[in-house]
Each structure stands twice: as C-alpha cells, then as structure tokens.
Amino acid sequence: MRKIYFVFLVIVSACINKNKVAPPDVVFPVPTQVQLDWQEKELFAFIHFTVNTFTDKEWGYGDEDPNVFNPVDFDPEQWVKTLKEAGFKGAILTAKHHDGFCLWPSEFTDHSVKNINWQNGNGDVVGELKKACDRNDLEFGIYLSPWDRNHAEYGRPAYVEYYQNQLNELLDNYGPIFEIWFDGANGGDGYYGGARETRKIDDQVYYKWDETFKIVKEHNANTLIRGDARNSLTESRWCGNEQGYIGETNWNMVNPDTLLAMGKKRIKVLNTGDINGNVWMPAEVDVSIRHGWFYHASEDTLVKTPDQLYDIYLNSVGRGAPLLLNVTPDRRGLIPEQDIASLKGWKEKIDKTFATNLAAGAKIEVDSYRGNSDNFDASKLTDGNKETYWATNDDVKTGTISVTFEKPTRVNYVLIQEYLKLGQRVKSFSVDVFKNGEWQQVAQGTTIGLKRIVKMEPVETEQIRLRINDSRACPVISNVEVY
Ligand code: FUL
C-alpha cells in the first residue's frame, strides 16, 4: 500500500514539475501590443489622390490651380467596398501630398477643398472617406506630407507650427486613426507662396519629430507611427524600396543611431533590419498597383496583374512585413475597373492557395521540447492558438518539426510563425521532403518573424520537415501550416 502511495506521489510531483517548466526568457527588443496588432493585420491600402490626379503629375509644384480638382463621380463607398472585398484591413489617404493642397476644409489655409468649385466648396474627401470606412468596418489612416511646396513659410519655424496645427485638426476631426504616415521625401524646390525657390531643411531637426509624434499619441495611443527609422520613437520603418519586397532576411529590429551614422547606405539595412538592433521597428512594404502613386491614363495598361500582386504578397506578408498596396482613384473619383479586376483576381488566388491547411489533419512531431512539458510540445504548433508555442530548452538552438500525412500528399507551401512576444529569434532554417526513401532539402531561408511563407516546387510526399538550423536563442514557434 505504502509503495503504491509512493509511486502515486512520484507521478503527481512529476506532473506538477512538468507544468512548472518556465517559458523561455524574452530576447529583446520585443513589439508593443500596438505594433503586434498592426503587424497581424497584414494588409493595408494606400490611396493617392489630389490635384496631381488632374494635372497628370507625381509631385505637384505647389502652384496648381486648386479648381483642377473636380472628381465628378467621387464615391468613397466604391473605394472602401473594393478594398474591403480584396481583404484590406485599413486604408491610408493622402490628406495632403507634397503640393500642399488639402483634401479637407482646413481652417489653417485657403489652399483646400473649401475654396474650389467642386461640391460648391462643401466637399471633404477626408471626412467622406472616414465615414465610408466607419460604415464598412475598415480602419482609417492618414498621410500628411511634411514637405509642402505651396506654403510660404516652408523651411521656417512658422511652417512647423502650421503642420502641427493641421495634424491636431485632422486627429480631432477624423480620428481615431490606426496609422499616421510621415513621408521622408523632400526634393527642395517649390512654389512656396510665390517665392519659387529651393529650400533645404535638416529633416532630423526641422520637423521636431518628438513633439509631433507626441501629438499623435496624445490623441490616441493606438495610432501607429510610420516614420523615419533614424528616430527611435518611429514604430514602423520604410522597407527601403517601392517595388514591393522586404529582404529575404527581415529582422524586425533596427538601431536608429547606426542608421543615422550610415547616411544613404542605411537604405540597405531598412530592407533587412538588423539582428543587433535595439529598437523594434517592423518594416511596411509600400508599393503601387500601377507604376506611379497617382492616377495617369497612360498607365491604364500598366496595372499589376493578379500574379504580380501575388508575388508582392509572398515577398511582403510572406516575409513577415505588412503590405501597404496603393490604389489610384481616377479623375472621376473612382477606382478604375481594371484595377478592381486585378485586386479580385489576386484575392481569389490567395484564398484558393491557402484554403486547406494540410498540417491540420497530419501527425506533428518534434525532436525535443522544453523540459518535456506539454505546455511547449508539438501540439502547440497546430492548435490554432497564437498564444501557445513549441519551444526547446535554453541551450538548444536548433530543432526539427516533422509533418506526416496519412497518404502521399502534394505540397507547395510551408507557412511558419514565430511567437514574437518573446522576441524574433530564428536565423536559419531549411525544409526537406521525404522522397525515394530519403530526406531531400527543397528550400532554405534565414529569418521567420511574424510569418514566413516558403514556396517550393510542388512535390508529392508523405512527410515534410522543417529544420531550425540556428537561432539567437531557443526557437519559439507558434504555428506551422502546409498547403
Ligand atoms: C514618397 C513620395 O514622394 C511619393 O510621392 C509617394 O507618396 C510615396 C508613398 O512616398 O516618398
């Protein structure tokens, strides 16, 4: 009897100890909840619309007759429905581009929709779009160009006050917004109230970013700040190009001071992030559905095809960076039909490709798991719960996850996700399939991050495995899917 009691005690204490296995320590830096929520939304739309749409320019000089702005069939409901159906979670509008024309009736300038013939001066693109977003449950964001080629005071302190006034005005009247987009572009020359000259500023100092960011956060702590990566308060960085891809190696971290010292060379680092970075600053991939950011009739034949958009998707979302895809309302004030067709085709392709997760019904095994505790075992990889994860012991920086199907199955993609609340870790991985009695490597990669979609040549196999080859600390993987 005593013996049975003893065995019972041993089992109970083993169980208790198993559940006592501590989770891995955090590897800093880590995302804030605002950043993580934003990253997880994955798909955002940019909307470039202003006088440029009517003057056929990309950068207005600032001397445009505001009355050229006349979208006779203006229908933000059509924009929002299009974006919503394509799977976007939010839309960011150019409330003011470099030319300085304001798409809302700002009380701080005459250069706005309030002084034009369109809608008898009662038009408000920002307000109408915000309302359409609210009606359709799409999040709303604002782009407010710091560079203003219209304003007479640009380059002097009075302009920064004007800029901050406008920011306050927009956030007061059209908030809360999910993202604010601070553009870094500055070409120097402009109309500047008639001066027609070149004005140079030190963008690190002139715009008083710390103060400007504070205005945003005081209005809503949940608004994500997309800005210059050389400022450590920036919450999302530019991806270093406008072609629609983030690096195959994509760390969510950067070191703002290092970037500052690098000059133009920093653009390369924006694309890859920095394994030694001390600030969590995920990249956002911004790219246009057409060649330019604004509508040009001459680009009607240059709309990206569903396949091109799908490649962009794999090279952004599939590498752990949200995609900000730009659409271009035309002179009618509508998203053109051919662009809508492309977006539809793209969405269908994504939905079809990722319709059935083959890992869901398969057997998942790992070579080791943390403290042999079922809190960190293989089942956590496919339980559909993003808060649970497979992890190894602290001294184990490699690991193997294998997926065994009931019968030979055609596989084309593996989707992997790290649990980022404990920091981004994986440095190198490979994918193998079991074929002709042996393991054959079919893909390899570096970082994983929020989501990594690995595309392989389609292959029929009974077993596929993921090998983590190197990691900053023990790997912590929350999800594995196979398609
Ligand atoms: C750039 C701007 O100069 C382009 O016109 C566009 O707005 C793009 C998204 O950012 O810096």
UniProtKB/TrEMBL annotation:
One of its GO terms (biological process) is fucose metabolic process. Coiled coil: none annotated. GO terms for cellular component: lysosome. One of its GO terms (molecular function) is alpha-L-fucosidase activity. Residues 351-483 form the F5/8 type C domain. Its EC number is 3.2.1.51. It is an enzyme of class 3 (hydrolase). InterPro entries: FA58C, Galactose-bd-like_sf, GH, Glyco_hydro_29, Glyco_hydro_29_N. Keywords: Glycosidase, Hydrolase, Signal. PANTHER family: ALPHA-L-FUCOSIDASE, ALPHA-L-FUCOSIDASE-RELATED. Belongs to the glycosyl hydrolase 29 family. This is alpha-L-fucosidase. It comes from Mariniphaga sediminis. The lineage of its organism: Bacteria, Pseudomonadati, Bacteroidota, Bacteroidia, Marinilabiliales.
